Amino acid sequence: GQQLNQSPQSMFIQEGEDVSMNCTSSSIFNTWLWYKQDPGEGPVLLIALYKAGELTSNGRLTAQFGITRKDSFLNISASIPSDVGIYFCAGQWYGGSQGNLIFGKGTKLSVKP
Amino acid sequence: GAVVSQHPSWVICKSGTSVKIECRSLDFQATTMFWYRQFPKQSLMLMATSNEGSKATYEQGVEKDKFLINHASLTLSTLTVTSAHPEDSSFYICSAGTDRANEQFFGPGTRLTVL
What share of chain B has pLDDT > 70, as a percent? Predict the structure, then answer.
């Protein structure tokens, strides 16, 4: 099925460092979503973006909805060990009451204490 | 609020048997439920979308006769993997959506291992 281009695939950083990851698509979306998935668990929503150009923060996390509606980035500032996990972007296009999510391939984040 | 549960959390079965996975929205009514499959180190791939009281819509390449979906109520959807084979071993995750177009809440997933 259709997927987004998410990069990097993996990151290994030192605790306290900032992290940046992004997603691009050839299609436009109405909504961009960022999820974190821990091993053996379902994805947990971190940030949802609804308008082109929107910049939203959730604690140490900041995400932006690209102005072209075809890309988004997620930044994590001052990383801590519990940030370890896999981060997925997801784009959503809907014309009715519910729209399918298209997921990126994920960014695996490892944090060294 | 917006809690989605799945049962069982993991299951091991013999090849050729059928397995049923339940997805429940615990504190809200889900107008739509989605079923995803995730292979190791890969992303979530949508299998099917179901609306309460109607037939599920399957994604291309997903066999509807093998993956039976029932969405009998606004709080429960079931996925039955019929005649399971080892290649069906995967992590199955459901999500539940409300009337708001952008809200989908994910369950914790079910690990299926077919021997």
Answer: 96
DSSP summary character for residue A98: -
- Tell me which of A98, A103, A108 to substitute to probe the interface with B (most B C-beta atoms closer than 10 Å): A98
Give the type of residue at B88: D
Residue A105 near residue A18, CB atoms below 8 Å = no
Which pLDDT belongs to residue A97? 44
Summarize pLDDT for A91-102 with one digit per residue, the tens.
987 654 456 788
Contact call for residues B90 and B37 (beta carbons, < 8 A): yes
The pLDDT value recorded for residue A83 is 96
Give the B-side interface with A, CB within 8 Å. 4, 6, 31-32, 34, 42-46, 49, 59-61, 91, 93, 95, 97, 99, 101-102, 104-109, 111
Whether residues A100 and B93 touch (CB distance < 8 A) is answered with: no
The CA distance from B1 to A21, in Å, is: 29
Tell whether the model's pLDDT for residue B80 goes beyond 70.
yes
